[in-house]
Design a protein that fits this description.
This protein has 394 residues and is an alpha+beta fold. The protein folds into four domains: 2-34 and 207-266, Nucleotidyltransferase, domain 5 (2-Layer Sandwich), CATH 3.30.420; 40-114, Beta Barrel (OB fold (Dihydrolipoamide Acetyltransferase, E2P)), CATH 2.40.50.140; 119-204, 2-Layer Sandwich (Ribosomal Protein S5, domain 2), CATH 3.30.230; 274-384, Aminopeptidase (3-Layer(aba) Sandwich). It has nine helices and 21 strands. Helix 2 (142-155) links the parallel strand 11 (133-135) and strand 12. Helix 4 (209-217) runs parallel beside helix 5 and helix 8 (310-332) runs parallel beside helix 9. The protein starts with a strand and ends in a 10-residue tail after the last strand. The model has no long low-confidence stretch (mean pLDDT 89).
């Protein structure tokens, strides 16, 4: 069972997601400054750079957004085609264009935007111009994948694209069709607004953080939502009722004087898990360091001496570390290149045990992560999609 713990302050909302009591996700959002990710803007092209095959677009933010040529071409065009049209053939300075934020602004860089539009719903992701149906890779059974793909092809109109989300397993045609109609209406409103007003202009912003996380990770009827603001609790209950076919969900309005994160055991876990050194249950520990280019994670045996041989001790520490690292990467929202320096192992089968443990735990992460493999120096390389600045405790 998962618990979503929400702490509402005057200017900020914080959310902690617990899975069987263990902290797996943390999110924070200023009440008046929601993130840009997923938002639609009508922008104006201010610079076209042929040498970079990219353009800069004014979307009304502090820094201009970056639009790469692949994100201007039709979604069905092979991204790695050897011959691509020049960006200057596709865009011109002064041109107004509807874009969607693909990556949040990070540091001195503006947002990265795309014209490959997508609108996430409860059961599907709607892509108004993609012209294909895809099914989440996390749906394992071929029979269910085939059913959902067939359902998607039946529901979509010519030119539309759909991604069937993992939570759609065993879901009815009517529920998914209802989700699709709502998303079509959202897209229609975005288009109408873009035709009426000039750039730069915000056309559509994604839901609040709490609603997004309810939509993406909360299972009505199984999971519990605990929130320390009665008004927000009522709003969450109404939204859950809407996406759960009118059925009630487990929502608790927390009213005790002790801060909710302290009472629910979140504060201590946050302090532990966002430290540079994180101890493992068996006595080993990992150290997480960040550079401009990548994140480095070092694994050490520490106090762990449980194995009957050195190789066994090392392997058990590494397996424990792999499980914890997968959780910490998700919790801290670490993106980009990640290098893990596991303790040296002699046997190939033990290295496979470690990568298998890491792979299995990474399946729980909604952000795409790719394990590249072991380097000749015995380091494990992986990359994780970077869409926001890494989370830190304020």
């Amino acid at each position: 069972m998962k618990q979503m713990i929400v702490h509402c302050q005057e200017n900020r909302t914080e959310m902690a997601l617990l899975d069987e009591g263990k902290l797996v996700e943390f999110a924070s959002e200023k009440t008046r400054e929601q993130g840009l990710l997923g938002s639609f803007f009508k922008g104006r092209v201010v610079n076209v750079i042929p040498g970079m095959q990219a353009a800069f677009v004014d979307i009304g933010q502090k820094r201009n957004a970056f639009l790469y040529v692949d994100d201007v071409l039709h979604p069905n065009l092979e991204k790695h085609a050897k011959i691509k049209p020049a960006i200057s053939e596709l865009l011109r300075v002064g041109q107004e264009i509807v874009v969607q934020v693909l990556k949040e602004p990070v540091g001195s860089k503006g947002a990265r935007v795309t014209t490959h539009y997508s609108l996430p719903g409860r059961w599907i992701v709607y892509m108004p111009e993609a012209d294909y149906v895809a099914v989440s890779k996390k749906i394992a059974t071929e029979e269910e994948r085939a059913r959902l793909r067939s359902l998607g092809e039946k529901l979509r109109r010519r030119g539309e694209g759909l991604i069937i989300r993992t939570v759609s397993q065993k879901e009815s045609l009517e529920a998914i069709a209802g989700d699709l109609e709502e998303l079509r209406e959202q897209w229609k409103l975005i288009q109408e607004k873009s035709h009426q007003l000039s750039a730069p202009l915000l056309l559509h912003r994604d839901m609040s953080m709490v609603q997004r996380l309810i939509r993406d990770v909360f299972t009505p009827g199984e999971d519990e939502l605990v929130i320390d603001n009665e008004g927000q609790a009522r709003d969450a209950a109404a939204y859950l009722k809407q996406i759960n076919g009118g059925r009630e969900s487990r929502i608790t309005s927390y009213t005790k004087p002790e801060p909710i994160f302290c009472a629910m055991g979140v504060k201590g876990q946050l302090e532990r898990d966002f430290a540079r050194k994180v101890w493992l249950a068996g006595g080993g520990y990992v150290v997480i360091d960040h550079t401009e280019a990548l994140t480095v994670i070092d694994v050490n045996t520490g106090k762990y001496t449980g194995g009957s041989t050195l190789e066994e001790t090392v392997t058990e520490t590494n397996v424990q570390a792999a499980v914890e690292i997968a959780r910490l990467i998700r919790l801290r929202d670490i993106g980009g290149i990640i290098i893990i320096d596991f303790i040296d192992m002699e046997e190939e089968q033990n290295r496979r045990r470690v990568t298998d443990a890491l792979d299995e735990c990474l399946k729980k992460d909604r952000t795409q992560t790719y394990v590249v493999g072991w380097t000749r120096l015995g380091l494990l390389e992986l990359t994780r999609k970077k869409v926001r600045e890494e989370k830190t405790l304020s």
